[in-house]
Amino acid sequence: MEKFRAMLDLHLKHHRALGYGLVTLLTAGGERLFSAVVFQCPCTATWNLPYGLVFLLVPALALFLLGYVLSARTWRLLTGCCAPGARPRCGSGLRRVWVCAELSAAAALPPLTWVAVALLGGAFYECAASGSASLARYLCSGRDPDCAAQLPLVPCGKAKASDMQELLQELRAQSQVVGWILIAVVIVFLVIFTSVSRCLSPVSFLQLKFWKIYLEQEQKILESQATEHATELAKENVKCFFECSHPKEYNTPSSKDWQQISSLYTFNPKNQYYSILHQYVNRKEKSHSIKSSEGDTVIPALGFVDSSGIINSPDL
Q: Could you give the CA distance from residue 83 to residue 144 in angstroms, rounded to a whole number?
C-alpha cells in the first residue's frame, strides 16, 4: 500500500513530464511498428518519393493536430469565440497569437519525435530520396550510367549494379545525420525556451510551485462542487417532473459568470491572482465584469494557468 501511495504521489507531482514521456515512447513505438509491418516501398521512380514523404510527414501532421485537440487550453481559447459579441472575452489578437504559439510548441513534440525516430530508422527517407531526380543526379555523379535508373530499386535490394549497396548506406547515413540534427535542435530549443520563460517569470521558484499546487486543488474542488451542484439540480428537476410541482430556487452561475471564468488568464503585478476564477471572485463590485487593465500581460512561464479547468481534456 505504501509503494502504491508513493507511486501515486510521484505521478501527481510529475504528471506533465510523465505524460510527455509516455507520448514520446508511444510515438516512437508506433513509428517502429509502421516501419516494420505497414511500410513497403514500391521501388518505382514514380511512387518512391510521394510514398516515402507520406509515411514521414502525414502521421506527423496528424499527431500535431491531435496535440491541439487534446489540449484543454485550445478549447478554452476557441469555445464561444465565434458567437456574437464574443470578441472582448476572447482577448486581443496579439494575445490569441501568443497563446496559439505556445499551443503549437507543445503540440509539436509528438510529430517531431515521429520524424526524428523515422529518420534514425532510415526506411522512409531511403524510399523517398531514391525517387528524387535531383538527389539522383547528386548521388550518381561519377558512377555507372545506369545508376539513376537503378536507384529506385535500391531500398528493395533489387538493383543490379555492384555499387548500389554503397548508395543505400549513404542514404541511410544521410537520414540518420538529419535525424540527430533534428533531435539536437529540438533539445536546444526546449532548453532555451524553458530558460527564457523561467527568467521572465514574475514570481519566485517556490511561489511558482505553490501556484501549481493551488491550481490543482482549485480544479479538484471546482469539479467536486460542480458535480454536487449539478446532481442536486438534476434530482430536483426530475422530482418536480414526476410530482408535477414547482422546483425550489437554486443559485446557479449565469452564462455571463461562466464566460468570465472561461476567459484567458493575464498576470497583473498589482493584483497577483492565481487563476481567472480567483480574479473573478475578488473583483471589487459584483456587477462588474473582468476587464483588461493596465499592467495585464501574458507571460510564457504562467501558461499552465489556462490549462486548468473542470476537466483536463475536452469531450469530443
A: 65
- pLDDT of 8 > 60? The answer is no
Query: What is the average per-residue pLDDT within 271-293?
Result: 76
User: Look-up: residue for cell 531500398?
Assistant: 155
What was the pLDDT predicted at 89? 54
CB of 274 closer than 8 Å to CB of 215: yes
Distance, CA of 191 to CA of 267 (rounded, Å) = 24
Cα-based distances in Å from 75 to 8, 277, 300, 314? 28, 17, 18, 7
Alpha helices (H) in 36-163, listed in sequence order: 48-69, 72-78, 87-90, 93-107, 109-121, 123-130, 133-139, 147-150
Amino acid at 199: C
**pTM for this structure?**
0.78
- Residue 98 pLDDT > 50: yes
Q: Which three cell numbers stand for residue 228?
A: 454536487
Provide the residue type at 11 as one letter.
H
The DSSP 8-state label assigned to residue 34 in this structure reads I
**Stretch 61-76: mean pLDDT, rounded?**
86
